[in-house]
Design a protein that fits this description.
By secondary structure, the chain is of the alpha/beta class. It is about 45% helix and about 15% strand. It is built from ten helices and ten strands. Strand 2, helix 2 and strand 3 form a beta-alpha-beta unit.
Length: about 280
């Protein structure tokens, strides 16, 4: 429970962290560089065994808007939920500990939501990078998200159709209202991956509108390539089957048929990987 006496900030930034101390400083520096200043940052340490605590506490000492919260290891969904439960802002920015955001992101998206009270969630573009976040931000790399072509404003069945094709909305891209999170609920702690995909899917089932607003300066920078390829193959296949089985129970007609075909493809891929000795 919050015991602070000062007025609540406009935006709560939730940063889950598990053994990402070597990346965490980059994410927090991108937050400190924001033109918009009325935010709080909740670093949720999900039982890290590395130097995540030391990095987080150094930033907490440096800026009083940053708050460190430790929990025993319970997974990414539980860490995000802890952040939501302790957040005080009227708007929520999710920021993974290995990613970063452009310096105008909060300002641009906050102003848009202020001017469009009927819109619950706004999102922009994602840029992938593998080495230096500073270099990626300066270069505005053309290595954009592979789901960029899917990004449009949508709600209802159109949004469901897009989400059944792919998780086009990287988790740090949106800024959304706190009452959006209250309506959709918490992240599903039974999911070890793609928990954000399921979250957006649940929102689409409730006919929530996602507004695409790709203004330069509002990008999210997504770090790629630091997990082993073998680990990614195992996790993506298992998580893909899990999320698509969840979707199947909430779809009908052509969308259900399409999703069933994707499940079959994942099952075939799993069999091939087993034969190859990959999993």
């Amino acid at each position: 429970m919050n015991e602070r006496n000062e007025p609540p900030p406009e935006i709560s930034v939730i940063v889950p962290c598990y053994n990402y101390g070597h990346f965490l400083a980059d994410a927090l520096e991108s937050l400190l560089a924001q033109d918009f200043e009325d935010w709080e940052c909740l670093i949720i340490d999900d039982g890290s065994k590395d130097n995540s605590k030391e990095v987080a506490l150094a930033f907490q000492e440096r800026d009083s808007r940053i708050r460190y919260i430790f929990q025993e290891n319970a997974g990414l969904s539980a860490a995000r939920n802890k952040g939501l439960e302790n957040s005080r802002g009227q708007y929520i920015q999710l920021l993974d500990a290995d990613d970063g955001i452009a310096s105008n992101k909060l300002q641009i998206q906050y102003q848009f939501l202020q001017e469009n009270p009927e819109i619950p969630l706004v999102f922009g573009d994602a840029i992938l990078f593998s080495r230096s976040l500073v270099e990626a931000k300066n270069a505005r790399s053309t290595f954009s998200s592979p789901t960029k072509d899917f990004k449009v404003s949508a709600n209802g069945k159109q949004l469901l159709k897009m989400l059944v094709r792919d998780n086009f909305l990287e988790v740090s891209c949106p800024l959304f209202r706190k009452n959006f999170a209250t309506k959709i609920g918490l992240f599903d702690t039974s999911l070890k991956s793609y928990e954000d995909w399921q979250y957006w899917f649940r929102a689409a089932l409730q006919d929530v509108c996602f507004h695409y607003f790709p203004i330069t300066g509002s990008e999210t920078f997504i770090r790629k390539g630091h997990a082993s390829m073998m680990q990614q193959l195992r996790q993506m296949n298992a998580a893909g089957l899990q999320i698509r089985h969840f979707m199947q129970g909430n779809l009908n007609g052509r969308l259900a048929w399409y999703n069933r075909l994707r499940i079959i493809r994942l099952l075939i891929k799993r069999s091939i990987l087993k034969l190859a000795g990959k999993i």
